[in-house]
Specification:
A four-stranded antiparallel sheet has the order 3-4-6-5, with helices on one face. The radius of gyration is 22 Å and the shape is elongated. The longest helix has 38 residues. With 184 residues, it is α+β, with helices and mostly antiparallel strands. It has two domains: 100 residues, Ribosome-recycling factor (Topoisomerase I, Chain A, domain 4, Orthogonal Bundle); 67 residues, 2-Layer Sandwich (Gyrase A, domain 2), CATH 3.30.1360.40. Helix 1 packs antiparallel against helix 4 and helix 4 packs antiparallel against helix 5. It contains five helices and six strands, in the order ααββββαββαα.
């Protein structure tokens, strides 16, 4: 594969991985540690994610438990999760936090479906931007004499096919997440 296309492919894969991470943080009806693990907490004079301060467990499909390694941070973790705007209310049991996942209403499901759509559209926009950058590299390589005009068209066709494949993967991820959210 041409080095110009390889740089584009690497960028596309990073965008896809970022989308996967973003979608994993959107809650569904089931308990999932990804919902809380990247919430930032004020600890030791800086912002740290929950996963860097505690062990996160999912004992059943409706409950998340968080056990802080430093018990003095339990109140800060509780406050951080409550204030994060994810609609979770942790219960402090002295040595650990227990979060019962609330039943999602139809309205909540619809709102979160819109968020999934926005996140996938952001990913598509980043893909389009990267595609334009790679096209510019191809054209400048042709102008520099590194590739012929025929090669340029061939590279652009390969690029479009690659972009189509990544857009299909984005749609697949979004559809999968929406299906997961709409399942009661």
């Amino acid at each position: 594969m041409n080095p110009i296309l390889l740089t584009g492919k690497d960028e596309f894969q990073l965008i896809l991985e970022h989308l996967r991470k973003e979608l994993s943080g959107i809650r569904t009806g089931r308990a999932n540690s990804a919902v809380v693990e990247n919430i930032m907490i004020d600890a030791y004079g800086s912002q740290m994610p929950v996963k860097g301060l505690a062990s996160i467990g999912v004992p059943d499909s409706r409950t998340i438990t968080i056990e802080a390694w430093d018990k003095s941070l339990l109140k800060e973790i509780e406050k951080g999760i409550r204030d994060a705007g994810v609609g979770l209310n942790p219960v402090n049991e002295g040595t650990l936090l227990r979060i019962s996942m609330p039943q999602m209403t139809e309205e909540t499901r619809r709102a979160l479906t819109k968020v999934v759509g926005e996140k996938s559209e952001e990913a598509r926009e980043k893909i389009r931007g990267t595609r334009e950058d790679v096209k510019s590299l191809i054209i400048s390589a042709m102008n520099d004499g590194d590739v012929t005009e025929d090669e340029r068209y061939h590279l652009q066709d390969e690029l479009e096919a690659m972009v189509g494949g990544f857009n299909d993967q984005i749609k697949e991820l979004a559809d999968e997440k929406e299906k997961e959210m709409m399942t009661i």
